[in-house]
Amino acid sequence: MEHQVPDPEHDSTYAAEPAPEHPRLREALATVGVPWTQVTDCRQLGGGTYNTVFRVHRTDDTPLVVKLAPGPGEPILRYENGILATEARYYEAARAVPDVPVPEALLPLTLPADPDADAAGIGSDTGSDTGSDTESRSGFVGHLVMTDCPGESWYECGEQLGDAERRALREDLGRHVAALHTITGKAFGYPAEPFGPLHSAWRPAFLEMVDAVLTDADRFAVRLPRPADEIRKLFAAQGPVLDEVTVPTLVHFDLWDGNILIQRAGRQTDEKEEGVEGKEGGDGGDGEPRPRGVGPGVGPRVTALIDAERAFWGDPLAEFVSLALFRDIEDDDAFLTGYRAAGGKAVFDTSTRRRLTLYRTYLYLIMWVESVPRSYDAERIAWLRTAVLGPLTETFDEWARA
After folding, report:
1. Continuous H helices in 191-264
2. 280: domain range?
3. Count of structural domains, the chain
4. Who wins on pLDDT, 1 or 67?
5. Dihedral, 297, 156, 340, 334 alpha carbons, nearest 10
6. Residue 378 has pLDDT above 50, yes or no
7. How far apart are CA 334 and CA 197, in angstroms?
8. pTM of this prediction?
9. What whole-number distance in Å separates Cα of residue 84 and Cα of residue 166?
């Protein structure tokens, strides 16, 4: 069985509760031409730790998903400034790639698009945010309205999958990721430009991303394995290997099982049946719940890649970190088969493995530092201490010995 991640970070596909009218939700829907009088049902989705997420049904029974970002006074990490604009523009770019299943972002956002945005639809959003956790954020994007996606969370049904089903899904996922990695841009960094302009080279862009999360650690008084300045120097010493990356590629960077929706073999449902992605679909006459909006059709297959808030322009190799969260992507033969068959390049040599370690360490830093502004409970902190802080400590120790 593949490792299942306890208490997932960003999955918005868990059990939903009926939600009362929400002022910001009403405003978000109005921006895409949906008045509250057209809302027949509204439910808040659980499981996320950053945005507040709702599923809304309209009078024509068409479901939408609405994300509401934390307000301008709420504590966030620096890279999260403008994060919903990044997600929207990721979907714009991805939907231009044939057969890749992602939501459709319904525009306009609250933040105007940059007139100099590149042809892929992802460009500059904002100025930078370098101040405290409570000051107003430049380029604040308060919401994102998008189409709902069919399928059930891979995370939730993962233990039910047989080996053949799992392999087919991983190959399908590999093909989709290879297609997404054909999307290239003009510069490196986060599309929302939370730290300032994008970079012409990957090394300074990535080191700036690392610097930002270490600055956040100081800001939120997060205890790190080593002083932040020492960690900056350790990353910088590893930096020359990043110069091998010369083409900015669009990277999702959060494709763990909770952000992948699937259809299992032999399962189908009516698109109008009520349910919460894999939790409360209608039954097919045999008492078995069906995922929403899938079928009739074949399976198994990936039906949606969601929650692209962490996307950036960078090294496509970085994608493999979340795709094999707490595992080794080199052991994922099925995914790599699909990825390579669709034109993706995956050669694991010394340079590749060093870059993978850099990206994994960066992701672990985010996961550890965000625990303070997210106010995680003691049980979650204890898990992170083992799963994330321990490996961080080992990596920094290894780098310091080199």
Report:
1. 202-219, 228-238
2. 16-401
3. 1
4. 67
5. -90
6. yes
7. 38
8. 0.83
9. 31
